[in-house]
Amino acid sequence: SIGTVDVNDILGTNNQPILSYTDSGKSPWALKPHCIKGLQPKKQKEGKVFCVQTYRRHTGQDISLITTPETAYQTVNALDEDPVSVFLDYEAAEEYREESLPWKIVSIEGKDMGVKATRKIGQYETFMFDQASIVVALDLDNEAVIKRADYGELLETATSQLGNPDTIRKLCKGSPDGSPPVRSSHLEDIMENNAFGSSIGDIEVKGLFPSIARINHDCVPNAFIMFSPSGLSVGLKAYRDIAAGEEITVSYLPLGMTHSARQAALKGWGFECSCSLCADSASSIAAHDAKRERIKALESEIQATFQEGFVQGAIRLGQELLELTREEGLTPMLADEYVMLAKLHLAAQDEGPAEEYGELAIEVLKDLGFLGDVDEGGKEWDLESLLRAFGGQRLI
Length: 396
Ligand SMILES: C[S@@+](CC[C@H](N)C(=O)[O-])C[C@H]1O[C@@H](n2cnc3c(N)ncnc32)[C@H](O)[C@@H]1O
Prior knowledge:
38% of the residues lie in helices and 17% in strands. It is α+β, with helices and mostly antiparallel strands. This is SET domain-containing protein.
């Protein structure tokens, strides 16, 4: 590391578009970028340069990016994007803006703060939106890329340059037990505990969304987070009807994990989960775990059975997988399973059932907001366009 450097001293010819953008007086950034050169990786000439670039949004919720200048430059057209219009059509967006917010941040016993619905929320409704306040390139988690102290300095600058830094500083930092204290600063703890993985183009980042960060975990969540293509906005969609006054929850973990795997993973957030699935009787937990382990085993068994040429056998296993997934309420996993069964039936030359599974997959994907009304060719989705979109040789 060569310590703190000025972005204008280090941008080479490859970065010319960014330089001229900055030089032309049209720079979107509110302050001069604060940059630090990372460590020199083996076999490379020099380390990457990471800069803090802060933008003052019209909404008043500023954003600081800690990325390479090139990555920050990719976000320029999305810095002011309005999440409500990203996730809702024109009419629904207008309606949403007219009503008072259907959620509020409140104190929740045993969990510090959390978010509750202020009215009934319908299944698959997108009802909460947020903009990223801090975005950090995932590279920065790597001690071989940047010194911890330099990362801490970039985080501190990124936060203090926001219009309302206290919104970030007051987020909960968790109390992970067991693992050694690898993080050097309070802000690093806050990022670790509250940020979500996202991407800007093909660069992996983590984004801190200050309202969404107040949502607690549940292993059977009632909502899930969707990212805008820019990676700078999120929308929250309900898996099921949510009653007024009910706590809004998301899963911090991939769905379908067993009890012990969930407990181990949640230690990173420093709490013991007491959701309905985790607080169930020992026999019920064991029954759920057995189903979840069977689901995992079936995924590879189906693949192997199909590869050995036993298509009908693979279909039977696929039906068992569907049943268990439904019993466990793991709805989002159903879409892949329906597509897989459609592919298996096509392999068995049963076009009727293949079409039916295709329709079921399209229905789930549309409900979850992963498919628009029409495909890329502007036609209603059908099995053919679905399989094109979900191409690839793998069954599941
Ligand atoms: C992303 S924050 C969620 C909001 C947080 N409760 C707050 O007051 O800001 C994650 C932290 O919330 C707490 N938390 C989240 N889900 C929980 C749960 N199901 N039970 C207990 N604490 C939970 C843990 O302290 C965790 O580290």
